[in-house]
Amino acid sequence: MMNSKRILVTLLCAVIGLALVACAGNKDAASTAIKAAEDAYNAVKGEAMKYVPDKAKAIEDSIKAAKDTFDKGNYDAALNAAKAIPEKVKELAAAAAAKKAELTKAWDEMSAGLPKMLDAVKSRLDILSKSKKLPAGLDKAKVEGAKSGYDTAAKMWEDAKAAFAGGNLTDAMAKATTVKEKAVEVMKTLNMQVPAAASKS
To answer: Domain boundaries in the chain?
Structure first.
């Protein structure tokens, strides 16, 4: 009887011991997986936050959720959650690269056309400022308003170029779009022909 009890206690201890070993193993595996997920995300975080901030935030939320699950002692769930993150990070990196390429292409198109528009407006304003009589449909107030609009657009174009040079494509494109809208507005005020490409939204 005593032997049976002893065997039972020994077996019970062995089972508990194995469970603890398994638990420790799962804890280590989950901790390693979470670190791997964080390392993978940190490698692309800079670009991702610039070009696809919403998607980057979703990854950060996933990592935080895995950590919270780990802290609660649910190591299996934390491990499974963390293991899925690196694949999502790959998708995030691809999305950021695609957005960067899209913005770069749009910038190239803008930087090819906008300076010409601004030069045309400046040339027109120079001619009007020297004219003794303004063309029909124009008066001094309209010309002054157009000059002010041109000055604003020219200054913002410099800001857009600085943003692009600094690697902030999103801000550069936002500024360039405003410059285009202002340039189109001024050209219409001066009764100039707006380039077809600039008329598109």
So the answer is: 2-97, 98-199
